[in-house]
C-alpha cells in the first residue's frame, strides 16, 4: 500500500485549543475513591490524594477535567460534599446504584485539580434540581464573599473563590436513562433560565448546553436544533458524547469509526449554524466533545454487580491494542475540526473507562489508550494543518471508502516543530507514506514514535506493559519529502524540527 500527502504551513485550519485534551472524573466506580483519593494508600499525600496517580495525570498534561458527572450529577446535591467530612451524608447514588460517602466534594476536587495543573469543568444538576441549586453553587465557588454561600465557603476553609470558568448545564438530558430526563423543549427552557441566573452571579463564565448522547439517539439532531433555539444567546458551546466498541470483533469497521465521529461533528456544526442563520446571529456556537472513548469491555461484568456498594469496580474496561489505535484516530477527528471543537474530555481518567488504572492499596499503571492520548496531548499543540491526502481505501461491513491512512498534522510555532500523526488501518499490510513537506525547508526527523503489536487484543496489566511505544520508526527526509513505512495496524507520530 502507498499513500501520499502534502503538508503546508499555509493550510492552517485553526489554532488548536489545548482544552481538547481534557478528561473527566465522575463519582462513579473507583474513579474518585481508590482512584484519585485513597487516604490509606502508602502513596497518599497530606490530603489523601494518590501521588502515583497525580504523576500519571501530570504526564498526560490534561488542561481541563469535567466533574462530578456524568449521570451522577443529575441526582447530586452539591451541598452534601462540602463542609466537615464527619457531617457529610451517605446517599444512594441512583445513577450507578451505589452508596456515595461524599468524602470528596467540590472543594477537594478543586484542590486535586491544582495538583495536576488542570482547570475544572463543573456540571450542574438539571435532573432533580435546577436554577436554585445552580445559582447557589456558583455563588459558593465563584463569589468573593459577604453573602451566605460565599461566606460558607470561607467557613469551610477556602478564603479565595475558586473562579471556575467552564460550566455544563446538566448531562445527557436527552437520554431516557437520565434522572430527570427532559424533552428538548423542557431542557431548552431550564437550560436558558439556569444560564441566565448563573451569569448574573458571574458574567465571566462559559456555558455548555447538552447536545445528544450519541449519534444513534432518535432525537439527534433535532435535539440540538430545538435546544439551541432556546439557548443560543445564553450559551457558548454545545456538547457531544460518543463511545465505540468492537462488539462484533470486526476490527476493519471498528478502526473506521472516526468516520462516524467526523460525520457527527460536522452535523452538529451544521445544526448550530442553521440556528445561527435563523436567528440572524453574529455569534458562533463551538463544540465541547465532553465525553468520548471506547466503552464496551466491562458492560457484562457491570450487570452482575450487587447494588449499593461503596466504590465498586464499575466500567473498568481493560483496553487492548486496537482500542489504542481507535483512540488515536478519534483524537485526529478533533484536530480536523480544530476550528470548531474547542473542548473535549476523554471519558474518563482513572479506573472508569480510563487510561490510568489503579489497584486499591496497590500500584498504578498505563492502559494501552494512555499512549495515543499522551502523544497527541504532547505534540498536538499549536496550529492544526489540513493535509491533502491521497490514500488507497477499503470497504468494511459498516463503512465504505475508508482510507487506510488516517492522518493529521500540527505545527507548533513555539517549538517550530511539525508533527505528523498517522494511523495505518490495514490489518494485513504495511503502508509506504510519502509526505511532501516542502514549506518546512531544512526540517529533519526528530523522532518517529511507533505503537505496534502483532496481537490486536494485547493488553497492559499492573505487572506487564505489553503495549508501549518505541522510537525505532524509519521515517526519513530527503528533498523536502518524508518517507516512512507504517507497519500494519500501527499508530505513528513523526516529529520534525
Ligand atoms: O462516562 C460514563 C457515562 O457515560 C456518563 O456518566 C454519562 O454521561 C454517559 O452516558
Describe the structure.
The protein is globular. It has an 8-stranded parallel β-barrel with strand order 3-4-7-8-9-10-11-12, surrounded by 6 helices. A 6-stranded antiparallel β-sheet has the order 2-15-19-20-25-22, covered by helices on one side. It is built from 11 helices and 25 strands. The protein has 497 residues and is α/β, with parallel strands linked by helices. A hairpin with a 4-residue loop joins strand 5 and strand 6. The structure holds alpha-L-arabinofuranose. The site of alpha-L-arabinofuranose has 9 residues, from loops.
Short description:
With 497 residues, this protein is α/β, with parallel strands linked by helices. It contains 11 helices and 25 strands. Helices cover 25% and strands 24% of the residues.
Question: What are the key terms here?
Answer:
497 residues, alpha/beta, eight-stranded parallel β-barrel, six-stranded antiparallel beta sheet, 25% helix, globular, binds alpha-L-arabinofuranose
Amino acid at each position: 500500500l502507498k499513500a501520499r500527502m502534502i503538508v503546508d504551513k499555509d493550510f492552517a485550519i485553526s489554532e488548536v485549543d489545548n482544552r481538547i485534551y481534557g478528561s473527566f472524573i465522575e463519582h462513579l466506580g473507583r474513579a474518585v475513591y481508590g482512584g484519585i483519593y485513597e487516604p490509606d494508600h502508602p502513596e497518599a499525600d497530606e490530603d489523601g490524594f494518590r501521588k502515583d496517580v497525580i504523576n500519571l495525570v501530570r504526564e498526560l498534561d490534561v488542561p481541563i477535567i469535567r466533574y462530578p458527572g456524568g449521570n451522577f450529577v443529575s441526582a447530586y446535591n452539591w451541598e452534601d460534599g462540602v463542609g466537615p467530612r464527619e457531617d457529610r451524608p451517605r446517599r444512594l447514588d441512583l445513577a450507578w446504584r451505589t452508596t456515595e460517602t461524599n468524602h470528596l466534594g467540590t472543594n477537594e476536587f478543586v484542590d486535586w485539580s491544582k495538583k495536576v495543573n488542570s482547570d475544572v469543568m463543573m456540571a450542574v444538576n438539571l435532573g432533580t434540581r435546577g436554577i436554585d441549586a445552580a445559582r447557589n453553587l456558583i455563588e459558593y465557588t465563584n463569589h468573593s464573599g459577604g453573602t451566605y454561600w460565599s461566606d460558607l465557603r470561607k467557613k469551610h476553609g477556602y478564603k479565595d473563590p475558586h473562579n471556575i470558568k467552564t460550566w455544563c448545564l446538566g448531562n445527557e438530558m436527552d437520554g431516557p436513562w437520565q434522572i430527570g430526563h427532559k424533552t428538548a423543549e423542557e431542557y431548552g427552557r431550564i437550560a436558558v433560565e439556569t444560564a441566565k441566573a448563573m451569569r448574573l452571579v458571574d458574567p465571566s463564565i462559559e456555558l455548555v448546553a447538552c447536545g445528544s448522547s450519541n449519534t444513534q439517539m432518535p432525537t439527534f439532531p433535532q435535539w440540538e436544533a430545538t435546544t439551541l433555539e432556546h439557548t443560543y444567546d445564553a450559551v457558548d458551546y454545545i456538547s457531544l458524547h460518543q463511545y465505540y466498541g468492537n462488539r462484533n470483533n470486526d476490527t476493519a469497521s471498528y478502526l473506521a469509526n472516526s468516520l462516524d465521529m467526523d460525520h457527527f461533528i460536522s452535523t452538529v456544526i451544521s445544526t448550530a449554524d442553521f440556528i445561527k442563520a435563523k436567528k440572524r446571529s453574529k455569534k458562533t456556537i463551538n463544540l465541547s466533545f465532553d465525553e468520548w472513548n471506547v466503552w464496551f469491555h466491562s458492560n457484562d461484568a457491570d450487570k452482575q454487580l450487587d447494588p449499593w456498594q461503596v466504590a465498586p469496580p464499575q466500567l473498568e474496561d481493560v483496553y487492548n491494542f486496537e482500542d489504542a489505535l481507535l483512540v488515536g484516530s478519534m483524537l485526529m477527528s478533533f484536530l480536523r475540526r480544530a476550528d470548531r471543537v474547542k473542548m473535549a474530555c476523554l471519558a474518563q481518567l482513572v479506573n472508569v473507562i480510563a487510561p490510568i488504572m489503579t489497584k486499591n492499596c496497590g500500584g498504578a499503571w498505563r492502559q494501552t489508550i494512555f499512549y495515543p492520548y499522551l502523544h497527541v496531548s504532547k505534540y498536538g499543540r499549536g496550529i492544526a494543518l489540513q493535509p491533502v491526502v491521497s490514500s488507497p481505501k477499503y470497504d468494511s461491513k459498516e463503512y465504505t471508502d475508508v482510507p487506510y491512512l488516517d492522518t493529521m498534522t500540527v505545527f507548533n510555532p513555539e517549538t517550530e516543530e511539525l508533527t505528523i500523526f498517522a494511523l495505518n488501518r490495514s490489518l494485513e499490510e504495511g503502508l509506504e507514506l510519502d509526505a511532501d513537506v516542502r514549506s518546512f525547508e531544512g526540517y529533519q526527523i526528530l523522532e518517529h514514535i511507533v505503537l505496534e503489536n502483532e496481537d490486536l487484543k494485547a493488553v497492559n496489566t499492573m505487572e506487564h506493559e505489553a503495549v508501549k511505544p518505541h522510537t525505532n520508526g524509519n521515517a526519513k527526509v530527503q528533498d523536502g519529502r518524508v518517507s516512512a513505512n507504517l507497519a500494519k495496524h500501527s499508530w505513528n507520530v513523526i516529529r520534525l524540527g
